[in-house]
Amino acid sequence: MDVLGRRWTPVVLAHLKEGAHRYGELRRRMPDVSEKMLTQRLRELERAGLVERTVHDGVPAPVSYQLTTHGRALGPVLQGLHDWGTERATRLGIPIEPVAPSDKTDHPTQGSQP
User: Fold this and answer.
1) What's the rounded Cα separation, in Å, for the pair 104 and 21?
2) Predicted confidence (pLDDT) per residue in 64-101, tens digit
3) Environment class of residue 65 by beta-carbon count within 10 Å: exposed (0-12), middle (13-18) or buried (19+)?
């Protein structure tokens, strides 16, 4: 439970709820998080058994992350947080900017991979 309350963790999980993402994709989707923080969160989530890290063939080796079975079980909780946040933002008049769609043509040499 401690890992879920850490800064940026729900955001990382929400993006991975959509499917597997390469490290560079996650960085582009979360421009306000530092590389160090993103790497720390991904490693914590991997140690907690919520995220699986896969190293693919290539030079440098592309790395992707996806939710494990236990991570996917958080889907309803993440959806509840999203719904609550959306309702709250609407009620308070806070604009929500959509995240740019993932670029599935992410080249393996783009971005660093922890």
Assistant:
1) 9
2) 999 999 999 999 998 998 899 899 999 999 988 776 66
3) buried
Do 36 and 78 meet the contact criterion of CB atoms below 8 Å apart? no
Q: Which residues of 68-101 are buried (b: 16+ CB within 10 A; e: fewer)?
A: eeebeebeeebeeeeeeeeeeeeeeeeeeeeeee
pTM: 0.78
Q: How many CB atoms lie within 10 A of CB 48?
A: 16
Distance CA 87, CA 29 (A): 22
- Strand ranges of the sheet holding 63-67, from the earlier edge strand across to the other edge: 21-22, 63-67, 51-55
